[in-house]
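Structure (tokenized):
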């Protein structure tokens, strides 16, 4: 994971007792905890249980975290361990066969590093989107909603000629790519090797259209 200045700031602030930094940290990584829990098929009550356990454990171990940039990996690993704990507890009334326990694991689990990268991408896009002008945010939101807004509706709402919607969309996406948070992520993704192809990276930036 890259050394995100925001993560370092939040960790240092939380260590120093800054409640605002702690709240910001939880808000940023709660979706990561939730997404991992979802892959284990946990109930809403169990997800809350895992979340509380993870944050309590983090309070206890935050001062032991030598590198603030390691925080996302710590949270992902702690979440997975707590999910497995609940799965094992739910199996106590059944034969404790490791093969059966393994078979009960969700089939779509992904490695921690992939889960972190997915979360990092989402956070970077959100941060970059927030840096766009209100007009760009509204235009892109209308274009990606389900179903996408009709060009005529966009034209009327934004007072924009239909023929200029495409060029404006391209300019807004270009600004999105150049936003510091997303530009740094795109650069790190382009530099990150893939194990499946012998170390070369042939991917494209996440936002390409």
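Design, position by position:
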């Amino acid at each position: 994971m890259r050394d995100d200045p925001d993560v370092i700031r939040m960790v240092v602030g939380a260590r120093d007792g800054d409640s605002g930094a702690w709240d910001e940290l939880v808000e940023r990584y709660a979706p990561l905890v939730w997404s991992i829990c979802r892959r284990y098929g946990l109930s809403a009550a169990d997800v809350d249980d895992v979340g509380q356990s993870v944050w309590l454990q983090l309070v206890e171990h935050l001062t032991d975290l030598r590198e603030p940039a390691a925080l996302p990996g710590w949270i992902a690993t702690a979440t997975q361990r707590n999910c497995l704990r609940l799965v094992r507890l739910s199996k106590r009334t059944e034969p404790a066969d490791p093969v059966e326990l393994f078979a009960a694991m969700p089939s779509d689990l992904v490695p921690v590093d992939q889960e972190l990268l997915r979360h990092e991408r989402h956070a970077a896009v959100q941060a970059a989107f927030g840096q766009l002008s209100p007009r760009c945010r509204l235009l892109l939101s209308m274009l990606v909603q389900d179903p996408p807004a009709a060009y005529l509706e966009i034209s009327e709402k934004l007072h924009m000629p239909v023929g200029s919607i495409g060029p404006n969309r391209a300019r807004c996406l270009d600004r999105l790519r150049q936003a510091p948070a997303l530009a740094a992520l795109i650069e790190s993704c382009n530099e990150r090797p893939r194990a499946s192809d012998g170390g070369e990276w042939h991917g494209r930036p996440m936002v390409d259209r």
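Reviewer-requested clarification: The mean pLDDT is 77. The radius of gyration is 21 Å.
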